[in-house]
Amino acid sequence: MKKIAIVCLFEKTALFIQKQLYALIGEYVDIHALSLEKTIYSNIQSDLVLLGDAAVGKIIHNYIHDDIEMLSMKMTIGKSGFEKLLSIPEKSRVLLVNDTVQSTYDTINLLYEVGIRHLEFIPYYPNMVYNYDVDIAVTPDEEALVPPSIKRIVNIGGRVIDPYMIINILTKLELVNNKTLRDIVFNRTNDYIPRNPQLLDVIASILKSRNHLEKIIEVIDEGVIAYDEGQHIILFNEVAEKIFGIPIWKAKMMTLSECFSEISLTVENPEDLCDDVQSINHTDYIVNAYPLYIEGHYSGGVIRYKEFSAIRRLEKKIRQSSKGGGYIAKNSFDDILGKSPVLRQCRNLAEKMAKGDGAILIEGESGVGKEIFAQAIHNASFRHESPFIAFNCASIPDTLIESELFGYEEGAFTGARKGGKPGLFELANGGTVFLDELGDISPNMQTKLLRVLQEKEIVRVGGQEVIPVDIRIISASNKNIPGLVREHTFRMDLFYRLNVLSLKIPALRERGDDILLLLHHFLQGYGLRYELSKEAADVLLEYDWPGNIRELQNVSAYIGYMSENRLITCADLPQHFAKKMKKPLSFQQEKGIFQSEDEEMLSILLLLYQGREKGRHIGRKEISQQLPAYGVRLSEGEVRSRLQKLAAAGLAHCGRGRAGTRVTRAGEQRLRESGLL
Questions:
Q1: Ranges of the chain with pLDDT below 50
Q2: What is the pLDDT of residue 589?
Q3: CA distance 608 to 131
Q4: Could you tell me which residues come within 8 angstroms of residue 538 by beta carbon, excluding any fewer than 6 positions away?
Q5: Which CATH architecture has domain 597-674?
Q6: For the CA atoms of the chain, what is the radius of gyration?
C-alpha cells in the first residue's frame, strides 16, 4: 500500500488533515501525521509528502529523500459554510479570524477564489491590534479567537481538502482510474466547493486515465488569465501571479483593464492580441488571446503569456535536435596535446580569446588543427551551449555558398526545397560559425559576409525579410590573408572585421618533441604498446612534416597496420621517409664544394635560423641583401645554388612558394658546432 506523510507546523493541523484524508482515500493509502511542533529526528519514509505550508518544505528538506515528491496542500470550504457566507449582506465589512497570519490571508484568498466577492474581508489573527468598526466575524472553526466586541460570528467550519488536490494526490500515487475518480472525487467531495470548478469540470469530462490527467497538468506552464463577457477576471493562475506581481485573490476582483493598468499596459480589445510582444517587469512575453463561445454566445476569453526566453530555449532545442553531428563542437582545450613552448603559448592565447566575443582569424598551414582550436574556443566560451557549425569555403561556387550560409525561400531557384531552408547562420544563432579556407571566397561573397559582420542580420536568397542573427565568427585560412589584401584580392575592411583577434597555430615541425608525444597518442588509439628506436625518433624529429598533424596521423595508421614488432625502427616507417631523411653530410664530407664555401654556407644558415626565430621565412632576395653584413656577397642565383646544396646535405629544407627555405635540426647543430649559436 502506498504511504503518505502529512507534515504541518502544528500537530492539530496535521491530525485534522489526516482525518479528512482517511475518510476520502484511507482504503487506498497509509497516512501518517507529523508536525514541527514535535521535532522530526529521522528521515521520512513515504511515497508522497503533503505540506501544510510551503515553508515547511524548506525546513524538512534534509529529512526527505530526493526521489520523494512534496505537495503543498490546497484547501477549500464546504457547501454549508459557503451558503452561510452568501447570507451575509452584500458589501458588508467582515472580520476574517484565523490562528496565524498566513492562514488568515490564505483563507481570504480562498474565499475570493471560490467566488465570495460581495464581502470586504478584514484580516484578524492573535496579538493583532484591532480598531475596526465591524460587527460580523467569519472564522473557520476558530471562534475562541474572535474579539469579544463582535456581535455576529459566522463559523464556516474547518477548511476541507480541495477536490483538485485529491486528484493531484491520486495522480502522484498512480491511483487515477475511473473508479477512484467516480467514488472519491465526484461522490465523497460532493459537499465541497472546488477552488477551480472550471478545471474540475474539464477533468470530470475528459479524464479517463492517469495519462490524460498528467498531460493536462503538464500543459499549464504559461501565465493564463480567463475572463467573462464583462472582462471580469475569473481565472488567474500562479504563473500569471508571478508575471504580473498581483496576488490571485486581488486579480480576481479586477477587470482586465484594471489588471493591465497595474503594469502600465493598455489593451482595448484583448482578442486582438495575436503573437503580441509585451514587456512586463523587464521580461518579454509572447501574448495570445482566444475568445470563448458557449452554445454560440460570447462568454469571454483566455489570454496566454509565454516567456520569450522560454521560446528561445525551445528553438535552441529544436535546432540542436535537428542539426546532426557537424553542429556540435566535440573538442576542448584538453584535446590539444603538446608541451612545446610554442604550442603552450598558442593555447594560452586561444583560452584568453574564448573569454571574449570578438571575431577570430586563425592562421596556419594545412593540417595543424585549426578547426580543433575553433571548437575548443567555442566550448570554453559563453556560447558553449549553442550550436557550433563548421563550413569549408574552398572550391565551392558562390551560389552554393550563399544558399548554404544564408538559406533560401521557397521558389528562390530551380530545385529549391518546398517551404525554403534556413541557412547555417540562422541555425547557429547564439553560437559560433567556423569558416574554413576563407581566403578562397570571391569578392562578391566577401561583400555579403561583411554585411553579416557589420549589421548582425541576414536575408535569405529569394527573400525580403531581414533576420537578426547573434553569432561569433571564427575564420581560418592556410593562405596569407594580409598578402591577399596587398594584392587586392581580399577586401581590407573584411580582413579587419575578421581579424579582431589573431591566432597563429605553429607547424608540427616547430613543436619539437610534441611529434613523439602525438605519435604515442595516435598509436595508443590502435591499441599498440611499443618502443621507438633512437634512429626512428631522430628521423621523425628531423622530418619536415608538410602535412603536419594530419600527416602524422597517417604515419601512425601506417605503423599500426604494418608493424609487427614492438620496437619500431626506421624500416617500419612509410617508404617515402627513406628518400626524405638522408643522413646530413658535414661540410668536410662535401669536399670541393663546401670547404671553399664554408663561410657563405654558415652565413646563409645563420640568416635562415634568425628568420625562423622571428617567426618568418626569408627568400633568396632578402638573403642576398643581408649577406654583405657578414662580409659575403652573392647574387640571388648564387644564393639559390647554395640553398640547393644545403638542402642536399640535409642542413636546410626548401619549401614550395611562400613557405621558403628553413634550417633543419642538422643545420642548427652545424651552427652550434661552429660557435655561432
A1: 199-200, 202-204, 206-218, 321-325, 581-596
A2: 40
A3: 98
A4: none
A5: Orthogonal Bundle (1.10)
A6: 39
How far apart, in Å, are the Cα atoms of 177 and each of 22, 174, 203, 207?
19, 9, 12, 9
Give me the architecture of the 220-310 domain, per CATH.
2-Layer Sandwich (3.30)
If you write DSSP's letter for every residue of 394-441 in order, what string do you get?
A: TT--HHHHHHHHHEE-TTSSTTPPTT-EE-HHHHTTTSEEEEESGGGS
**CB contact at 8 A, 478 and 432:** no
Find out whether 167 and 180 touch, Cβ atoms under 8 Å. Answer: no
Cell of 670: 652545424
Interatomic CA distance for residues 580 and 632, integer angstroms: 30
CATH class, 333-504 region: alpha beta
In angstroms, the Cα distances linking 338 to 343, 505, 516, 533 are: 7, 12, 10, 21
> Which residue bears the cell 492573535?
126
The b-or-e profile of 155-191 (16+ CB within 10 A means b, else e) is bbebbbbbbbbbbbbbbbbebbeeebbeebbeeebee
Give, in degrees to the nearest 5, the angle at Cα 238 between 157 and 110: 15
CA dist list (Å): 168 to 65, 185, 203, 226, 521: 20, 11, 11, 22, 57
CB 453, CB 473: distance < 8 Å:
yes
Residue whose entry in the numeric block shows the C-alpha cell 592565447:
349
User: Nearest-CA neighbor of 82 among 22, 157, 136?
Assistant: 157
| Buried/exposed 538-565: b ≥16 CB within 10 Å, e otherwise | bbbebbbbbbbbebbbebbeebbeebee
Output the CA angle 204-210-213, nearest 5 degrees: 50
In whole angstroms, give the CA distance from residue 612 to residue 625.
17
pLDDT at position 413? 74
DSSP string computed for 135-151: -EEEESS-GGGS-TT-S
Residue 288: the pLDDT is 85
CATH of domain 508-580: 1.10.8.60
Overall CATH class of domain 76-161: alpha beta
Q: How far apart are CA 584 and CA 542, in angstroms?
A: 10
pLDDT given at position 218: 40
| Alpha helices by DSSP H, 252-307 | 256-261
Give the closest residue to 243 by CA, choosing from 279, 290, 198, 291.
Answer: 279
Indicate the length of the chain as a whole number: 677
DSSP characters over 480-522: -HHHHHHTTSS-HHHHHHHTSEEEEPPPGGGGTTHHHHHHHHH
Reported as a single tens digit per residue, the pLDDT across 53-102 is 778 888 888 888 888 899 988 888 888 898 899 888 888 999 999 988 88
Alpha-helical runs (H) found in 269-422: 308-322, 341-355, 370-379, 398-406
Question: Cell 534556413 identifies what position?
Answer: 422
Report pLDDT for 204.
46
Per-residue pLDDT of 139-172, as tens digits, reads 999 999 999 989 999 999 888 888 888 888 988 8
45 phi/psi in degrees, rounded to 5: -95, 110
Q: Cell numbers at residue 167, please?
A: 486528484
Give the span between the Cα atoms of 139 and 145, in whole angstroms. Answer: 9
Q: Which three cell numbers stand for residue 635?
A: 647574387
Grid cell listed for 410: 521557397
Neighbouring-strand partners of residue 286: 277, 306
Which DSSP state fits 255?
Answer: B
The one-character DSSP state at 166 is H
Q: Which cell goes with 31?
A: 497516512
